[in-house]
Amino acid sequence: MDPTGANEVSIAYKVFTFEDNSAECLSVSVPEVLDPQYGMYVWPCAVVLAQFLWSHREELKDHTVLELGAGVSLPGVLAARCGAKVLLSDSARTPLCLENCRRSCDANRLRDVVVLGLTWGEVSPDLVLLPKLDIILGSDVFYEPRDFEDVLVTVAFLLRKNPRAQFWTTYQERSADWSIEPLLCRWNMNCVDIQLESFGADKSELAGSTLPGSHSVHMMIITLNTRDLD
Ligand SMILES: C[S@@+](CC[C@H](N)C(=O)[O-])C[C@H]1O[C@@H](n2cnc3c(N)ncnc32)[C@H](O)[C@@H]1O
């Protein structure tokens, strides 16, 4: 223990329980840290994306999944608990956030999950040396319009290296003026909106959490334009 108290962090573990109509259920515990950084808290988008993963859990087994801007990492951790090979990432400039990604893995006894610093829009050795990917995740990564293109540049780079991969992302509507459409067009990518009711996420309470509340959250799947595929 640090006698000055300077290194002590205040952590609260939140439990999310995913269920379906069968008897199957899965509880994931993730740490929230009292800290001004956005990545230290679970956002409504994360619960919705995790619910989408839960409803597609059979597809995740043995797939390689990378989460961008993972923060507390609820979706990535759920994917790992469902049998995916997972890499979690957040900005290389937020070491405390990366430390919290590792804490999320520890809380779920996930020893094989890799945690990396990947900053959107930057080419780094860790980005270039990533293994083959099947699914890229991003929960609430479109929250600051000046970063939208950096997020999509990283996604476009990864999809060009993995042309069959998909970017599964949730977006919280904060302003009717924001749009990623022109950027998708510029980077030659397609977007399909997935209706929340199609995977049981059209509820204000999800996985035992009231986080979704009345927020307007959208689920999208982004891919390369098919004419780029061979
Ligand atoms: C609104 S939080 C969402 C966190 C988490 N995905 C969730 O939904 O609970 C945005 C996340 O993006 C990360 N982030 C912000 N700027 C970034 C950048 N330039 N590169 C990579 N990650 C970044 C933050 O550290 C934070 O974890």
From TrEMBL:
GO cellular component: cytoplasm; nucleus
InterPro entries tied to this protein: Methyltransf_16, SAM-dependent_MTases_sf
SUPFAM superfamilies noted in UniProt: S-adenosyl-L-methionine-dependent methyltransferases (SSF53335)
Domain of life: Eukaryota
GO MF annotation, one: methyltransferase activity
PANTHER family: HEPATOCELLULAR CARCINOMA-ASSOCIATED ANTIGEN (PTHR14614), HISTONE-ARGININE METHYLTRANSFERASE METTL23 (PTHR14614:SF164)
Record protein name field: Methyltransferase like 23
Organism: Pleuronectes platessa
